[in-house]
Design goal:
The chain is an alpha/beta fold. The chain has a single domain, classed as Rossmann fold. It is built from nine helices and five strands. α1 packs across α9 and α2 crosses α5. The protein starts with 6 loop residues before the first strand and ends in a 5-residue tail after the last helix.
Length: 212
């Protein structure tokens, strides 16, 4: 089914269903779906405790100077091996290094963590970047169903997590999280099912010549 090496990145609003559909698509294509396991992989390859990566996962750092400079020239170069080895910025560099390595070596799907930006700054040309969003009511219902939480908790999580993801993306890329021209396809998941969303993604990558 896969005709040549490529990578899919999926960024998603919490509650949109992007992660669920990404996992389904990966299973159908017979490829890996990388999400939280990127944290474990990065920990194993750096010998830095996984808890450090989990605490910083998809959250902006708090270095104001770094943020100002990053808005001009985000630094995703090689990690620093000095006393600031576990700073949020350096942990991001370690993670970006692992994402690039994974993308260069296998066809896969990578969820979140500025994957679209990291790969756009690498030598890998064959990547397709999706962003999945949905209206508030759809996100509330899907969060309630998937995470088995009540409406109040769903609303709380949606507000908190999407705010964190937006700030994280801005902090490390200098770009707005939902900027349309940074993605190949923005998918409004409000009025389509998970199955229909998967078909849409699959049809797009087929159109791009990556699968039969």
């Amino acid at each position: 089914m896969i005709k040549k090496h490529f990578v899919i990145t999926i960024d998603r609003q919490y509650g949109s269903g992007g992660r669920i559909v990404g996992k389904r698509l990966a299973e159908e294509l017979g490829i890996h779906f990388y999400d939280n396991d990127i944290l474990k992989l990065t920990s194993e390859r750096t010998a830095i405790g996984e808890q450090y990566f989990r605490l910083a996962d998809e959250k902006a750092g708090n270095n104001i100077l770094y943020k100002i400079v990053s808005n001009l020239t985000p630094d995703i170069s090689s990690p620093k091996l000095d006393e600031n080895i576990v700073s949020p910025e350096n942990l991001f560099r370690f993670q970006a290094e692992v994402i690039r390595e994974i993308a260069e070596n296998e066809t896969c799907i990578i969820a979140g963590r500025c994957g679209n930006y990291i790969l756009s700054q690498s030598t890998l040309d064959n990547h397709v970047d999706f962003f999945v969003y949905a209206d508030e009511e759809t996100r509330i219902q899907r969060a309630m169903d998937y995470d088995r939480i009540n409406r109040e908790e769903a609303v709380k999580r949606i507000k908190k997590i999407n705010k964190e993801r937006s700030r994280y993306h801005k902090y490390y890329t200098g770009e707005d999280w939902m900027l349309p021209d940074r993605y190949d396809l923005m998918i409004n998941a409000s009025r389509i099912s998970y199955d229909e969303m998967e078909i849409l993604m699959k049809d797009y990558i087929r159109m791009k010549g990556f699968i039969d």
